[in-house]
Design brief:
Number of strands: 15
Strand content: 15-25%
Radius of gyration: 23 Å
Largest sheet: 9 strands, mixed
Number of helices: 16
Strand order of the largest sheet: 13-12-11-7-10-9-8-14-15
Distance between the termini: 50 Å
């Protein structure tokens, strides 16, 4: 009884909230008992974390942020202030939470109090921490694109399946009702037999030349580079030292492939929902693209990609189309987009061209009722909330690794087709190009030790 009274008196203090997450009984604290919470560590504390991932996860009662990590100590410190302040305001108590700060996520993964991690890092730092989190038995929310290469995605998929952890890919268009409605209408034949899909996706502009600069003392630049080649530091090539505007790494091939992966995974994932090809993929890909001839930024600009599927559907993707997805069938068409939604304040969206979230060749198509015996796709209210629910139930989330990897692979083989400038035949089952050694060699990249998924699996 004395121990029980002691816990009651101290349970609302920061020390008790952190030090006794597994021994305070639910009868003492009810729904706010630490044992009812999912203890979360945040990996990457930049623009997407602040504007989207942390913001959209921490508001759920079952989520409890207890740690943050970033290779930029200034960003990590700012994230701690953000999280601590959120809980102070929510609970009405000063110093309610004393969020732990890490500079190396691998140390965070050793913390047995952490149940799950949210990964909001640059694209080249998606697969490795997710792989290591899976091996450590942590559940994972992973920003897209799922991987930098097809090979990385395969390795991550295998680890998640082996360890049976819950991984949700951040393709949050699945939580937007218009994308589900459009996919359901297409899947149920409201526009007749589907034969063509047109995806609007912008390219990136060329960038300026960028002088070499001293590495800021608050940035572990070697770890930021990770498995990618060692290059000189310049601020515009990493992220702003002041503020959280759109970073320059998004436009460099070392760290991603540009908009084809940056937003492409969203649209290819959504299109596959309507095409019923979520666990397969195209059988061919061909592309044309313009690439900058000078400057630091070197990912694709204007482009055009064509995918053919063995079910007779052809998918065209280009910046010349309105940003969104247009399903075209024998009896009409349906167009769907995010409308005015943005994940962060600096998303490069032309709102004037993206305001129509759902449209059709005949407005009556959109009011068609899906009958009880027809196809009903999974409905969720929130991508992060669905992940948290699935951690509790151990069910598959709406965007599991299997679907996320397939959508990402479409982006990555599109980028390869842009580079080789010829039609490539693709086997979506083996995830290899057919009779093309050069293209197959581009399904993976050399990884700079001691970083990279290969190093993790072979050390």
């Amino acid at each position: 009884m004395q121990r029980r009274n002691f816990i009651k008196k101290t349970s609302l203090s920061t020390a008790a909230a952190v030090a006794f997450p597994t021994i305070v009984p639910a009868s003492v604290l009810g729904k706010d008992a630490p044992s009812n919470k999912i203890n979360i560590g945040q990996i990457g504390c930049g623009r997407i974390a602040r504007d989207h991932d942390v913001h959209d996860t921490i508001r759920f009662d079952q989520a409890r942020y207890i740690a943050v990590c970033d290779v930029d100590s200034k960003r990590a410190a700012n994230a701690k202030i953000w999280v601590d302040s959120f809980y102070q305001e929510k609970m009405g108590k000063k110093k309610y939470m004393d969020t732990k700060v890490y500079g190396d996520y691998r140390e965070m993964l050793l913390n047995k109090d952490i149940d799950a991690v949210v990964i909001s890092t640059p694209d080249h730092w998606h697969s490795q921490p997710a792989l290591e989190a899976a091996l450590a038995g942590k559940d994972i929310y992973l920003q897209k694109p799922t991987s930098l290469t097809v090979r990385e995605g395969q390795q991550l998929r295998a680890a998640v399946q082996e360890k049976n952890v819950v991984l949700q890919v951040g393709t949050q268009q699945r939580a937007m009702p218009q994308f589900r409605i459009a996919a359901e209408l297409v899947r149920n034949g409201r526009i007749g037999k589907l034969h063509t899909v047109k995806i609007g996706l912008p390219g990136d502009p060329a960038g300026p030349e960028a002088p070499t600069m001293p590495v800021p003392s608050n940035l572990n630049f070697d770890m930021w580079l990770g498995s990618t080649p060692e290059v000189p530091y310049t601020e515009i090539g990493v992220h702003p030292q002041d503020g959280y505007s759109r970073p320059g790494w998004l436009r460099q091939r070392n760290y991603g492939a540009g908009m084809i992966t940056g937003w492409g995974q969203h649209h290819y994932d959504s299109a596959a929902w309507g095409m019923n090809t979520e666990l397969s993929g195209p059988v061919s890909v061909e592309a044309l693209a313009e690439f900058p001839k000078s400057g630091l930024w070197n990912v694709h600009g204007d482009f055009f990609v064509k995918h053919e599927y063995d079910n007779g559907i052809t998918v065209y993707t280009s910046g010349g189309y309105t940003n969104g997805i247009k399903y075209i069938g024998e009896d009409g068409w349906i167009f769907v987009s995010r409308g005015s939604y943005t994940a962060s304040a600096t998303d490069p969206v032309d709102k004037a061209k993206s305001s129509k979230a759902l449209n059709a060749s005949d407005p009556s198509i959109l009011t068609s009722v899906i009958g009880p015996d027809e196809i009903h796709l999974e409905k969720i209210d929130d991508q992060h909330g669905n992940w948290l629910d699935c951690i509790k139930t151990r069910k598959k989330p709406i965007s599991p690794i299997e679907k996320g990897h397939k959508a990402c692979a479409i982006c990555l083989i599109s980028d390869i087709a842009m580079q080789v400038d010829r039609k490539l035949n693709w086997n979506p089952d083996t995830e290899m190009f057919i009779n093309d050694d050069e293209a197959n060699s581009m399904l993976r990249r050399e990884q700079r030790k001691p970083y990279g998924t290969d190093y993790v699996l072979n050390k």
